[in-house]
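Subject: sequence -> structure tokens, single chain

Hey, anyone have a minute? Need the predicted structure for the following. Not urgent.
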Amino acid sequence: MTASDWKKMFKQLNAKPVVKEKYLKHCKPKDRKIGISAKRCEKCGRFGGHISSYGLNLCRHCFREIAGEIGFKKYS
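Reply:
Had a minute. Here:
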């Protein structure tokens, strides 16, 4: 199960609160401090290709879309 898929389980478990509590106790992924799933893109929510320089917190795809608007220039 990936880092974003575990929340989809709540649709089925909302009808069964006891089972939901047990699931959260044993199966919930821990909050990450390091690694690929620790940071998400603020615009689209992707995990990989994260640019956190200058406090951007964007994935590389979103950065390419808005780089010109925020003052970055392409060299070459």
